[in-house]
Amino acid sequence: MGFITYGKTRSKRGQVELVPEEERIKVMGTHEKLKTPEEHEAIMERLLKNRMLNPNSRRNIFPLSGLLYCEKCGSRMRFRVGENKKQGQHWSALCYHQYKDGSKCEQRGKVMDADFFNALYDRIIHVDPNILREIELHGSRYNDTQVIIEVKEQELKKQKRALDKLHESYEEDMITKQVFLERKAVRSRQIQKLEEELKNLRKVVVDEGNYPTVEQIYERIGEFRELWSAAVTSEEKNRALKKLV
Question: Tell me, what's the pLDDT at 188?
Fold first, then answer.
């Protein structure tokens, strides 16, 4: 009959023997405490002040969540809540991207304090004149492309009518088969070329049609200013920014 082990001691037939440290079985409530209650409270307070939220829980709760990307590597920035005596509670945007070779992005974090958001607001409501000129050029190209499409559509209809008349002339024995085949080949190539050009032009129209006009830009800025001035929570500020973007 062997010994029965109880924590630090074991007994056999009434004898009590001290169990070596490496042979002891530790159960709940008997192991040595890793930290005191005071240390636990200090750790939890530190984690609360400086926590990194997972992607699902942080979605849309920061004013720039889903909109801010790293300038150096292009990865989406992540946000962290911090707190100190000087700034109080604040947000920081950081890049945690890691390259394939194991190196980390060199982008430094940015504290998103009141000065940051004031500068962002001023930048948004004052549209760069160069951007406005680019928008006007897009609008002009869109209109020009529409005109070109109309002209080519008329030319395509003309070529198809000519091809129909060519078939009629051949059926009525007004032209020989050789002439018919030669003229048909020319008309068919012209029709195919026009159809390909129209297909590409229509793609351009779709892309340029999604580009906002100058009037729409100013309208959205006005809506943004109203939403931002009425926003109280971070979620509301984020909705205002996403509406403009």
Answer: 94
Q: How far apart are CA 216 and CA 135, in angstroms?
A: 10
Query: Which pLDDT value is given to residue 158?
Result: 94
CA 96, 97, 101, 104 torsion-angle sign? negative
Q: Is the per-residue pLDDT at 194 higher than 90? A: yes
Which own/partner pairs from 53-62 qualify as long-range (CB within 8 Å, at least 24 positions apart)? 53/79, 53/80, 53/81, 60/235, 60/238, 60/239, 61/234, 61/235, 61/238, 62/91, 62/112, 62/234, 62/238
Dihedral sign (CA 51, 55, 57, 59): positive
Residues in the chain: 245
At residue 194's C-alpha, the angle toward residues 193 and 197, to 5°, is 90
The Cα diameter of the chain in Å comes to 128
CA distance linking residue 235 with residue 245, whole number of Å? 15
Q: How far apart are alpha carbons 77 and 92 in whole angstroms? A: 10
Torsion-angle region of residue 29: left (phi > 0), alpha (psi -120 to 50) or beta?
A: left
Strand partners, 78: 94
Query: Residue 202, Cα to own-chain centre: how many angstroms?
Result: 27
pLDDT at 45 over 90: no
pLDDT digit string (tens) for 111-162? Answer: 887 788 888 888 888 877 887 788 778 778 888 888 999 999 999 999 999 9
Mapping DSSP onto H, E and C, the string for 86-128 reads CCEEEEEEECCCECCCCCECCCCCEEECHHHHHHHHHHHHCCC
The CA distances from residue 137 to 57, 142, 220, in Å, are 42, 8, 20
pTM for this entry = 0.43
